[in-house]
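Case study 2.
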Amino acid sequence: MTSARSAEPRGRVLIVDDEEVLAATLQEFLQGEGFEVAVAFTAESALGLVERFEPEVALCDIQLPGLDGLELLGRLLQIRPETLVLMITAYATVENAVAAFQRGAQDYLMKPVIFDELLAKIDRLLGMRRLLLENQALRRQLHATVGDETLVGRSVGMKSIKTLISKVGPTPSNVLITGESGTGKELVARAVHTQGSAPEAPFLAVNCAAIPNDLLENQLFGHVRGAFTGADRDHAGIFTEAGRGTVFLDEIGELALPTQAKLLRAIENKEVLPVGANRPQTIRARVVAATNKDLATEAEAGRFRADLYYRLNVVSIHIPPLRDRRDDIPELVEVLLARQGRRLGKRLAGVDNAAMRALMSAPWKGNVRELDNALERAVILSDGPILSPEDFGPAISGDLSAEFGDAGDDLRAALRHYERLHIGRILDRCEQDKKEAARRLGLGLSSLYRKLEELGLREI
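Prediction:
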């Protein structure tokens, strides 16, 4: 049964079989059925084809010279896990079938090959693959929505961050996230991951400052059995376990120089060498790193490798401190308060205007993390559904009259009053240079002039 070949191939199929006549026959049949087909006679040549040809389905003989079909199966799925594999053999045994399925094969076919059976199995696998891709697309949409809700804030700075995430997320490029401690760098990293091509893949985070260097290398790159005393089995490192997902390296600036060199090699060559291993392992994970240090300055001082810095800093996302985006505080309070209320089993309606003014004026040196802690404390101490300044303690419940003047209890008036004070301070710091002030405020120059007009600051 042969159909005319369509302009668009039905699918890409890789045939791996050392019986050249059979391989050629299968190739001719499948091409006649409208498939794009590549052929390899050894496992080694098949592995060389995989990344170039990107097969959707692979037909692999179990008995191959050199590397056998079961070993090929494991290697192939490491390089391209989305390929669905159909094992072919003349020697069907229960052990072979179980081993093939355990290593990730999707189906099993006996020789001599019956063409109609082969075609039915390939069509079934391609249908399964389409369903998987549709499912992944739906998950991406869901994660993208959740990620956007998690990143709270409507300030110019947060809008810029969300725009950057939407652009870099779908790419495989490395990302460097900078900002003070407590600003939410891991949340941004997770948002980058969920916007990516494999949001269902693992997101694995490592704090480079919290793990001793020798243990960190083992954590990142893994080890093989016998690599050191007590290594009684192989251990896959985080880069391998992440698959096509994301490895998030927090506090990357604390990484020791020898480990920096190994990380650079992993990023450049897309492979890692587990401790005690002789052969490297291919990796596909994307790297998202975060730091509260200025890595450019650290590189100039010789404390951080410049070449690693450039590899990590393909796209940079800077998170402003909370004191520079105070207009995000009301929304943050609403979200964090609801979360703390659920966690602590309390029903809360919100905060009163005096408390909001206090929260808006506090310095928040610990950024969002400090704000979250303050809200947790207030929820625990509160007696009613509305939080007041007294619930937060003396740190933010002092006299606010000097800061907010006669703004009264009206929240919009208080926010407007604070906005006026904040812009005035920034202009003072910039010695009335409006272009520089606009840059610091995250505004266009014309937007700043409009804001000055609205707030009655034309004379400044």
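The chain has three domains: 12-132, 151-320, 323-454.
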